[in-house]
Amino acid sequence: MSEIEIFPVPEAVAKSALVDDARYQEMYKASIDDPEAFWGEHGKRIDWIKPFTTVKDVSFDPHDVHIRWFPDGTLNVAANCLDRHLATRGDQTAILWEGDDPAESAAITYRDLHERVGRLGNALRALGVAKGDRVCIYMPMIPEAAVAMLACARIGAIHSIVFGGFSPDSLANRIQDSECSVVITADEGLRGGRRVPLKANVDKALADCPTVRSVVVVKRTGGDVAMTEGRDVWYEDITASQPAECTPEEVSAEDPLFILYTSGSTGKPKGVLHTSGGYLVYAAMTHQYVFDYRDGEVYWCTADVGWVTGHSYIVYGPLANGAITLMFEGIPSYPSASRFWQVVEKHKVNIFYTAPTAIRALMREGEEPVTSCDRSSLRILGSVGEPINPEAWLWYHRVVGEERCPIVDTWWQTETGGILITPLPGATALKPGSATRPFFGVLPVLVDGEGTELAGATEGNLCLATSWPGQARTVYGDHERFVQTYFTTYKGYYFTGDGCRRDEDGYYWITGRVDDVINVSGHRMGTAEIESALVAHPKVAEAAVVGYPHDIKGQGIYAYVTLVAGERESEDLRKELVGWVRKEIGPIASPDVIQWAPGLPKTRSGKIMRRILRKIAENEVGSLGDTSTLADPSVVDDLIANRKS
Ligand code: PRX
């Protein structure tokens, strides 16, 4: 193995940061030795209406999985993100918005945001939305998306954000599953100069969603959209007449804050449920410590609010901390490959948090688009969503950060609510490609296939042995599925679905998913979902989807398709199938490769051997392993001979 370069914490960073290594060790030990005391103390970082007296009540026992943090406390999440900052920083910017068009930007103060949230909260109440009701948010990256989230939180409604890139069908499935009564959307989104027909998508979706009574529409582009009488209302119209004062609903720490759908290895996406108190404590604390956030700094997370990263690290964590959070409507390549760095220069961004796929795509464009912009404001860089390859890490560090800025490679998941494994800028020597060490209160364990815990430097399946306040509580409407998915594979542990290596320094290296989930440009997808979209096409008899290494996307989507008897393989049909998956799920699920497969490798009991399909897609046909159990081993030769690269 090649020598791994280690980047020690620069002395100046260690001195000025919130925690240095000694402090990390001390706090980590305290958090594991006595979690009640540790979280009892850190739980106080947010404002409680009624303070909690119990810190945690948790069981990972598959017969009785329950996860409760600060259960007898009450609070309001929006009041924590807004009201409590008004006295000290009412006139400070809360959201710094940068439009798709570089000529458009806006600064929204905490006072202004508080008022906007109050008006929408009142308007939603006037539409009949009450505590516990579900509201679907299908929005572009405009400030109203954050306003909508916080307005729900203010009145105790549960938001369910659906990423604007999902198709009407995907949107409909999610609305139906959580029985939303209201959808908040915009006429159109704007990304890379192109319009996204959000309202038209909502109209299509709602043909099958009887629970939806109202659709609130923000005017973003002014494009022509249909408004259904009695159902659709303009955001501007319903908020203008409302007062800015909106009484915050007092909710229990364990009342739901949001549902967010995410893909697993089987079935439809799951509605992961997060609750209020523990989630907010964890999002805020990790935001402060992981990014070493200091008052007045400009912090930019490039995610979309449609993903968990946007929830925890654009909206809830930063706003709970009174931070300046930058929200970007556009894409890294528009109008040019310099856009990220132009925004950094324009807004003097101090902390920048993005995904490896963006880094890899920008790396291809060379150094000039980066170095032509002033990045001297940058202090900390972050990475999230997928493993970052050392080459991309080193480029990010050298070219973007001028070897000055520590990189925090943060590992976490929709289900974890916040960052679990990560360096801390002032405490952790960095190894490119490693998410390094656990955050406070996080106890990772590696287990073998039988669930036996492995010690020392080793590789295995990544589990968590204890709970942390940001952990998901259930799958909406299906607690059994929650238990089955995360707590039955390895008894007594939460199983992440990731494989992981631990080195001799106790650093963790995420090796990727060990289940049938793939990670395409940092977007998580179940191969089963793409397969069911493909077989829904009348000409497709069978389909098997696997991931394969892709230079920019991390993983690409490789689909093996068997046509129904009598159908002819053709380039046109291939294109049609790609378009079909885009329509069924959304553009992010478009297969990169479709290989015609007259037969799929199956065991005699009819189970598809994905291991073999993965090897062929990865072009590792020399190491197919044992194929003797196949019903018809000759199909493998055919697949190898017709492999698409
Ligand atoms: O496989 C891991 C990968 O992304 C998965 C979680 O995806 P999602 O729920 O969409 O959340 C993404 C944003 C938190 C994980 O199971 N992943 C996430 N971060 C990293 C990562 N893999 C390696 N390194 C990371 N830093």
From TrEMBL:
Supply the PROSITE patterns for this chain. AMP_BINDING (PS00455)
The AMP-dependent synthetase/ligase domain covers 83-466
GO annotation, cellular component aspect? cytosol
Q: Which domain of life is it from?
A: Bacteria
Please write the reaction equations for the catalytic activity of this protein.
Answer: acetate + ATP + CoA = acetyl-CoA + AMP + diphosphate
Q: Check the record and name the SUPFAM superfamilies matching this protein.
A: Acetyl-CoA synthetase-like
Which residues of this UniProt protein bind Mg(2+)?
V535, H537, V540
Q: Which CDD domains does UniProt cross-reference here?
A: ACS (cd05966)
Give residues where N6-acetyllysine occurs. Answer: K607
UniProt PTM:
Acetylated. Deacetylation by the SIR2-homolog deacetylase activates the enzyme.
What are the GO MF terms of this UniProt record? acetate-CoA ligase activity; AMP binding; ATP binding; metal ion binding
Provide the residue positions that the database annotates as binding CoA. Answer: R191, G192, G193, R194, T309, S521, R582
Instruction: Give residue ranges for domain AMP-binding enzyme C-terminal.
Output: 529-607
Q: Which family does it belong to?
A: Belongs to the ATP-dependent AMP-binding enzyme family.
Know the name of this protein? Acetyl-coenzyme A synthetase
